[in-house]
Design brief:
The chain has 156 residues and is of the alpha/beta class. The chain has a single domain, classed as Molybdenum Cofactor Biosythetic Enzyme, Chain A (3-Layer(aba) Sandwich). It is built from six helices and six strands, in the order E-H-H-E-H-E-H-E-H-E-E-H. The protein has a six-stranded mixed sheet, sandwiched between helices. The longest helix is centred in the last third of the chain and has 22 residues. The chain is globular and about 40 Å long. 44% of the residues are buried. The model has no long low-confidence stretch (mean pLDDT 96).
């Protein structure tokens, strides 16, 4: 089955034009290669309320099956992707977050500090991956198979 997906990049530096957004387009490419139809991409500042609104819009109005947030998962004072996700997604899927961190450690041990989560809102799965391009790629690839199974369960 072909699922619709959204990629939400959360980066102050990229939003303000100080750094290229490499991770968001890399995630989009992986999803398309895996058979997803990426119907929405956006670049946001690290503002929790803004991230929450975007997640709700993707899940409730656009009805995408998968949302991947890219960035905003670290320990910085403005890193709020996990908080935004948990605020609007009632069901956590901790195994996926654990698997993403386990895969990311192959890129750098520092990625154990990623606080990214996986959760569902209705029939939509939300994943938080690192804003580091290489880490984002490794994290997403590590969970594509179980995410596909989860989406088939959510969309019965």
């Amino acid at each position: 089955m072909v699922y619709d997906a959204a990629v939400i990049t959360v980066s102050d530096e990229s939003f303000w034009g100080r750094r290229a957004n490499e991770a968001g387009p890399a995630v989009e490419k992986i999803l398309e290669e895996a058979g997803y139809r990426v119907v929405h991409t956006t670049l946001l500042q690290k503002e929790q309320a803004q991230i929450e609104r975007e997640l709700i819009q993707a899940a409730d109005q656009m009805k995408v099956a998968l949302v991947v947030t890219v960035g905003g998962t670290g320990l910085g004072p403005r890193d709020a992707a996990p908080e935004a996700t948990t605020a609007v997604c009632p069901r956590m899927v901790p195994g996926l977050g654990e698997a993403m961190r386990a895969a990311a450690v192959t890129v750098s041990p520092r990625l154990l500090l990623s606080r990214g989560v996986a959760a569902t809102r209705g029939k939509t799965m939300v994943l938080n991956v690192s804003g580091n391009r290489e880490a984002a790629e490794v994290m997403l690839r590590a969970v594509l198979e179980p995410v596909d199974m989860a989406l088939s369960m959510l969309n019965k």
